[in-house]
Amino acid sequence: MACREVQSNLKFTRRAGIRNLAMFMGASPLLRGQQDTFRDHSRIPKMDELVTSFDFEAVAHAKLSEDAYQNTALGAEGEFTLRRNREVFDWVELVPRAVADVASVHTATEILGTKLAFPIMIAPTASQVLLHPDGEMAMHQGATAASNTPMLISFNSSFPVDKIAAAATGPLWYQLYPRQTPEENREIVERVQEAGCKAIVITVDAPVGELRERALHLRNLASPRAPAARGRRPAPDPNQKYGALTRQRPWIDWKLLDSFRSAIKVPLLCKAILTAEDALDCVQHGWDGIIVSNHGARSNDCVPSTLEVLPEIVDAVRGRLTVLVDSGFRRGSDVLKALALGAKAVCLGRAPRYGLAAYGPVGAQRVLEIVQGELVLAMAATGRPTLDSIDRSLVVMTDFS
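Predicted structure:
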């Protein structure tokens, strides 16, 4: 009997000791050493706590598998242009007008027959199902809720155009990588026009396959949150060999691009223009507009940011076609700088993607609303109450170096 009592006391003492040790460790200030001192890791914030479009990236990263996040975040090769796309905004200063009536700020405009409440659109980006189960349909819903923001559907979208179009009522444009023959292209452009797309954008860069070093570094890392389907091996990627030269669309020329005209009844734009010479070619071939773009730094590295080449392109075309711009834009003040340098509207790529990944359609909507609100504030702060009052006198450009 006495022996059993001793054993019972020992068990109680052991349990109590473990419990007390756990309580001590749980309350220990040493645990702070496992966290970044500048960030609260205790929870994912509610959407209304986020202040800028940048805030959504951290939430998206927390929710996505690593490969899905990197698919959006990465750039080509060493990512010089990816960094330059953001750095360039530090080289363009806003010059406020001291005396101006900004009691009301007007941002509505019309681009090639499409009405916009703000000179902001959603750039075409591929495979949005990696971010949300409803992919482009959810993005279209968020864009429509954000003042009917126009959305460009990527040729590499996760869902068919007609299904995306049926998900919401906002205006849609369509981005196309040209196929090799006019017949192939004609079938595509006729189908997207029937679905209601109000303009068609032809992307003309990336004649060879891009090299993405970040993806190569991560290629052997399997994500525990996104395992491969059982029994299915991923398709081989021709770029998974460093220095490999692969060919995607080396046959693009003006003869092929001119063949689009007969099948297209809506405005036609050329995307991925970075030089005045290419912009003038678009003028001479009768295109309706261009998008000054470096593909979000995902296709070619060591090329200039779009903001630094925008002025010379605008000067070259002299209003003979509509100039839009994308690549690197995250803030309303970024948009204002592009408008001052001659763009008619700005397309946002990664920012709404992070919003979609973080909170679904309402996340994409909120990112757009934040940038829209920032644009209004920046226009008021600089004494420019209308889009017509925005011109190059609003900015001072430092040396692009």
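Summary: Residues 50-217+245-396 form a domain with the TIM Barrel fold (CATH 3.20.20.70).
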